[in-house]
Amino acid sequence: MKLNYNKAEFCAAYGKFSQIPPPERIEIAFAGHSNVGKSTLINKLMNRKSLARVSSVPGKTSTINFFGLENLYLVDLPGYGYAKVAKSEKERWAGLIEGYLSADRDLRLVFMLVDMRHKPTADDIRMINYLIDTETPFVIVLTKADKLNKTERAKRMEAFSTEIPCFDEIHSIPFSSQTGEGVDELRSIIEDIADDAGDELS
Length: 202
Fold this sequence. Notes:
Layout: E1 9-14, E2 26-32, H1 38-45, E3 64-69, E4 72-76, H2 87-102, E5 107-115, H3 122-133, E6 138-143, H4 150-163, E7 172-174, H5 183-201
């Protein structure tokens, strides 16, 4: 199913899990550390400059943001792990993310973003373990891939196999918003999920 990405639209933002209405469509979520590039990735996939607000300030996405794309919702979860916010705010974000992921929603996939240049944070590992333990389908998206040369990239990929639990068994996709690397593969995954949902309805 070829999706018309230009028709993607911002639908709603929720600051508390209790505000989120029951699911109307299938959902694909984007999770990751603050400033890992979730908004940039969503904009690149949707051919837009500012569908999702991009900020150089970590922790800018403090709500769960829903974007409509034909028969599915793309769900941008708040970035976790940003140190410079009050404890109460961190707890609110954690409650939002955990509330969403553990709710009975039609969540088909999580794109779990990890900065390719660095060792995953403790929060990244916690999130990956949570997704594995709850058997939530997910794909690891290695962002900022263009910042590494070939040798650095090979070293990081080798390191990930010891740093990330079950890394060799998880589908991972290097991504760059600058070069467009990974865009086609990510879109093809989204389109396969949209196809499956369409088949269920027919």
